[in-house]
Amino acid sequence: MFKYYTPRIVRSALNIWPPFWGAGIRIVHISDDFRCVKIKLKLRWWNKNANRTQYGGSIFSLTDPVYALMLMGILGKEYFVWDKQADINFLKPGDSDLTASFIISDDCVKNIKHNTSNGDKYFPEFVVNVHNDKGEVVSTVRRVLYIRKKPKYRPIESGNGNNSLEEASAEVQSEAV
Q1: Domains of the chain: which residue ranges?
Q2: pLDDT tier at 1 (50, 70, 90 boundaries)?
Q3: Where would one find the signal peptide in this protein (predicted)?
Q4: 5: pLDDT confidence band, cut at 50, 70 and 90?
Q5: Between 3.40.50.11500, 3.40.190.10, 3.10.129.10, 1.25.10.10, what CATH number should domain 7-176 receive?
Q6: DSSP output for 80-97
Q7: What is the pTM of this model?
């Protein structure tokens, strides 16, 4: 992306980012190529719900920017990458520390590049399981991303070479409705 967008800097920044830090979320690992991320959510007194288990909002938050940030690091400055849609399925109470591992395969990246090569929008879906300290799945989160080449990197023949950042942002907002 740019010289300051390295796994180490992203990890450090997210670990002090107030929504993560306050919820007890910690980035444990980001691979050098951004293709693998591991995150941990500590069970603390301030993120327990009325049933004394992990607050559902914290579980959902631990998955929030991860796939988008990974793909920003993988695809680089030529692409817009935004979260478009997400949902969570709570399967059992999170009564311990929780972890989630995010992986983006080479085939996934090839597929994204293929589907966006002519300037089109692409909406890949990612699913991540959140595990308790026994390795049991406590929730499944599905995320849909918006990925598109930025206007100056789109082929001229696509007719999309002159769209502004504001137009691209408006497109994402209108499709979210």
Answers
A1: 7-176
A2: very low
A3: none
A4: confident
A5: 3.10.129.10
A6: EEEEEEEEEEE-S---S-
A7: 0.83
